[in-house]
Amino acid sequence: MHSVKHPRDIAIVGAGLAGVACAIAITRELGTFVPDLNIRVFERSDFPCTSGGAVNLAPVAQRHLARLGVMEELDRMGTYAGADIDSVKLFSMTSARLIGSIDFTDRAGKSYDGYKGRRVMRVVLLTAMISVAERANVKFFYGKKVVGGEEIDEKAVLHFEDGSTSSADLVLGCDGVHSPTRTNWVDPDRPSEYCGMSFLQTTVDTQDTSSPLPFDSAVHISRYGSLLTTYCDRDREHIFAAAIMEFKEEELEYYRLRPGQDWSTRNRIRSSLRQRLDNRFRKCAEPCANEIVHGDKEWILYPVHQVRPGGRWCMNRVALIGDAAHAMPPLYSSASYALDDAILFSRVLSRHGSDSIKLVFDIYDQLRRNAVDCAFVESSTIWNKMKFRSSLQERVKEWKMPSYIRHNQRKREERWISDATKVPIPTPELNEPLNPWQSFHQE
Ligand SMILES: Cc1cc2nc3c(=O)[nH]c(=O)nc-3n(C[C@H](O)[C@H](O)[C@H](O)COP(=O)(O)OP(=O)(O)OC[C@H]3O[C@@H](n4cnc5c(N)ncnc54)[C@H](O)[C@@H]3O)c2cc1C
């Protein structure tokens, strides 16, 4: 059942989680009935992006990665495949009192379909994803920074910083929160905005700490922000630490590390970041976390940006996927929204791509919009609670938090078991079903 109408040439902007997941998912969905499918991924960096330290993969993210064949590949990476995490324990930073727990197991302590949480270095995850994509014949082009695009006749044309262009039947803008595909093409009225909070991140060898982490993953909460400490490798030889705290937008430039900066500037940035961390978190009652704060590791600043909900996700031949469309402050499983996007988009494309791209975009928007808008509101609410408070406000927050966490447990459980491969795709009139047997799921 060969369809000549399906898009054959697909260009993806960005080799991040959304871009590579789209490449794999589309190959799986379309590959069997579009044999000359040509998927190219254009990445601005000269190598896979390593920023962001270690990511937590909630059960839903792992289920989706497993469907894409990535968990198997990741598991081949030995200790670097990441640390399995049952829960993230939340503590008061100053008293070390347990406030609550974000569980990645069910109430009987069991995994969800074999998946709990997993903390893995982003670069390792991306390496596993890219290996799977390359085996599926996806082609990667590094050092290709997209600066804009246009639609000409039946084609979408990408413009690169080096002056070259490339045309495709369909372009997917998976170029993250600052997406030029969005700001220079699809929706220029929706720039990214700084959410007021930043991550300061580092990794520490466990052999350099005198005490072990008492829990695999913990967040120490204070009125100045939160400090995450978590193992990020299977053998628990490395700890990933992230301090989440307020930085004013106008301060960010002062702390920004850039290629080409001289030694003294870099040294000034490193020591002022350390100073800032020390001021905020020096009273951490948990010994290992306290040692990490006072150690001599280099901390890197990652300002957190977001893209306000609403706005346009697509034009005639270009669509935004992942953070490019709906970046939100990260919360337990933000990356899983990018994976949901990739799987759902590929399924809608396979089902309706021979009808019209517009129909694909409309159905995809209809399936995704409400879910990501709700997630944005939830994560923004929680992030606002992390902002600076007086000590009285902090006490009230600590007192209320256990019931808030319990109250939201059902919502989290629903999210952990959600499965983008099972969401019913609306069936169009006059549309013949396409080879469903190679699809992720037969509706
Ligand atoms: C500090 C931080 C910590 C986080 N921690 C977690 C976590 O623990 N768990 C979780 O689930 N989620 C987490 N998230 C959220 C998660 O990282 C994102 O939701 C996810 O990475 C989105 O994937 P993406 O592919 O849409 O964007 P990205 O991962 O940002 O990928 C975008 C890609 O596009 C490329 N690109 C950008 N511009 C261009 C251009 N002009 N031309 C070509 N290529 C371009 C980039 O180099 C990059 O490779 C975190 C986010 C942040 C900021």
UniProtKB/TrEMBL annotation:
It comes from the Eukaryota. This is FAD-binding domain-containing protein. Keywords: FAD, Flavoprotein, Monooxygenase, Oxidoreductase. Belongs to the paxM FAD-dependent monooxygenase family. Residues 9-331 form the FAD-binding domain. The lineage of its organism: Eukaryota, Fungi, Dikarya, Ascomycota, Pezizomycotina. Pfam families: FAD_binding_3. GO terms for molecular function: FAD binding; monooxygenase activity. InterPro entries: FAD-bd (IPR002938), FAD-dep_Monooxygenase_BioMet (IPR050493), FAD/NAD-bd_sf (IPR036188). Coiled coil: none annotated.
